[in-house]
Design goal:
The protein is built from 10 helices and 13 strands. It is of the alpha+beta class. It folds into 3 domains: about 10-125, Haem NO binding associated domain (Beta-Lactamase), CATH 3.30.450; about 125-165; about 175-320, 2-Layer Sandwich (Alpha-Beta Plaits), CATH 3.30.70. It has a 6-stranded antiparallel beta sheet. The chain has a 5-stranded mixed beta sheet with strand order 8-9-7-12-13, with helices on both faces. The protein has a two-stranded antiparallel sheet with strand order 10-11. Strand 12 (about 280-285), helix 10 and strand 13 form a beta-alpha-beta unit. It comes from Tabrizicola oligotrophica. Pfam families: GGDEF.
């Protein structure tokens, strides 16, 4: 194999990751990019065995070993950074030494990250630069795709939530109620159910207008939200009708306490433009444990019957359904 005749400064432009050894294996020249990877104190005048270690297979980095591998692919590691394995070739020089030209191979991204390398640190003909641009472009595209997917997913979730939300009050709507009841039935989980109808609400709309009525409905929604758990569901199913679902609730006494708190708060005046809006609430209640299966139609009918029993008893009260309650009369 013909000896290399170019001087090291010229080789720096062609091979910015090379080093030159004399015939004793002492480092006499280090190209600028490789110098960035080596200790700051410098390695000129030091044996190559103190700087590089052969890999695959591992062997001492002596001149005899390097000469035996002239023309063959080398795998070497920097002793100051042994995790970074470089590829290279050794070529003889006219003075009996060697030129070892190195490259990063698959470690190029890691090397760029660790040592802050730029385009200027690579040969003009090195395709590594183009590869880095492609990797960077691919990373940017993938990041944008991930961001787009997240935005699309967020938009989908928001649309689904909007489809299940009452726009005036922010409570769940009838569709959300149906889905929640079906979910509880599928889980075989008991629950309590309340049907709430506002008393004297029509008078608010008739005397103060629909803006006042809307304000009252939003205040009612706030009360229902505050008086229920995050796992409960409060839904607006009609103009002034609401249904509340309490997963895991099997005690009539506990459900009655919750209903009493809600009614007490509904009876407090709600101010709208310096006008006191006074309403009340009538509630009918059922427990799913009282039914042999998830018969939602029967539960709704019984809750309605209990609700109208509350209204006939004077409004502003709650009634638990029981057999023998008089039916709704219109």
């Amino acid at each position: 194999m013909a000896p290399v005749t170019l001087e090291s400064p010229a080789l720096d432009r062609l091979m910015p990751l090379h080093l030159r050894l004399d015939e004793q294996g002492v480092i006499r020249w280090v190209a600028p990019t490789l110098a960035k990877l080596l200790p700051e104190a410098g390695v000129l005048g030091h044996p190559v065995s103190q700087v590089l270690a052969l890999r695959r297979p591992a062997a001492p980095t002596e001149m005899a070993d390097l000469r035996a591998r002239i023309g063959a692919r080398l795998h070497v590691a920097l002793l100051n950074d042994p995790d970074l394995v470089l590829r290279g070739h050794a070529l003889p020089t006219t003075d009996g030494g060697l030129v070892i030209n190195l490259s990063f191979g698959i470690w190029v991204n890691e090397a760029v990250r660790r040592y802050g390398l730029t385009v200027a640190d690579f040969a003009a003909t090195d395709l590594t630069v183009e590869m880095l641009y492609l990797v960077e472009a691919k990373s940017a595209v993938m990041a944008e795709l991930r961001s787009l997917n997240l935005r699309l997913h967020g938009a989908k979730v928001a649309a689904e939530q909007q489809a299940l939300t009452d726009t005036l009050t922010g409570l769940r709507n009838r569709r959300a109620l149906e889905l929640r009841l079906a979910e509880l039935a599928g889980q075989g989980r008991p629950f309590g159910l309340m049907h709430l109808d506002l008393d004297f609400f029509k008078q608010i709309n008739d005397t103060l207008g629909h803006a006042a009525g809307d304000h009252v409905l939003r205040q009612v929604a706030q009360i229902l939200t505050e008086e229920t758990r995050a796992t409960d569901l409060a839904a607006r199913v009609g103009g002034d009708e609401f249904v509340l679902v309490f997963p895991g609730q099997t005690e009539a006494a506990q459900l009655e306490l919750i209903a009493a708190r809600i009614i007490d708060r509904l009876c407090e005046p709600m101010c709208f433009e310096d006008q006191a809006c006074r309403i009340a609430g009538s509630i009918g209640m059922v427990l799913s444990a009282a039914y042999s299966g998830p018969d939602f139609e029967a539960m709704h009918a019984d809750a309605d019957q209990a609700l109208y029993a509350s209204k006939r008893a004077g409004r502003g009260r709650a009634t638990m359904y029981r057999a023998g309650l008089p039916p709704e009369t219109g």
